Amino acid sequence: MALLKKVQVAVADDHVLLRRALSKLIASFEGYTVLFEADNGKEVKIRLTQHVIPDVLLLDVNMPEVDGFETAKWVYERFPHIKILALSMYSDEATVIKMLRNGAKGFVLKNADPEKLKEALDSIVEKDFYLSDFVSGKILSGLHKNVDVEKETINLNNKEKEFLKWVCSDLTYKEIAEKMFVSYRTADDYRNTLFEKLNVKSRVGLVMYAIKHNLVEL
Known about the structure:
The protein folds into two domains: about 5-145, Rossmann fold (3-Layer(aba) Sandwich), CATH 3.40.50; about 150-210, Arc Repressor Mutant, subunit A. The chain has ten helices and five strands, in the order βαβαβαβαβαααααα. The protein has helices spanning about 15-30, 40-50, 70-80, 95-100, 115-125, 135-145, 160-165, 175-180, 185-200, 205-210, and strands at about 5-10, 30-40, 55-60, 85-90, 105-110. Helix 3 (about 70-80) links the parallel strand 3 (about 55-60) and strand 4. Helix 2 (about 40-50) runs parallel beside helix 3 and helix 8 (about 175-180) crosses helix 9 (about 185-200). The relative contact order is 0.11. Residues about 145-150 have low confidence and may be disordered.
């Protein structure tokens, strides 16, 4: 990944040994550096309010004092440009979906291989989201069970439906525009219109809607 400057990552996890191991691993990845470590969401809030702002926040779900759910929502509301990558040992669909709805751009398990962590970081930096096969399956399962998801159906035109299908791929928005034979600005308009229509705030939200309404097959 060719970058002019290193991507700055913050690591929040209450297990010290794991947190330090993750920080060391991330620092070994080309193009990445660790800006700070935090023991819980409270420490994350303090650092951010001190204007120590990372590009990516690797955020553990289960932490004392202020957990990952509350932290993700707080960070997303105040620092939406920070890309949150959720980290957990739990794989139930309710946890995955709640973190994504609270602003996380992706979800990775603590027992994932180092290559998967690098893949996840690269994806949310370059494409603004990360959906592994695992996460996609959990979202699909949760939506089929109606886990904390709106039931209302919105009328979409054919172009918007086509855009949603491409959003569920690994393509960037620029590449989606090329596939649809429209300008990047037009694709950007599709995205913003869908954000408003579907009441979502991220690409993950668009993907969740597309899966729920059978607009894409995984």
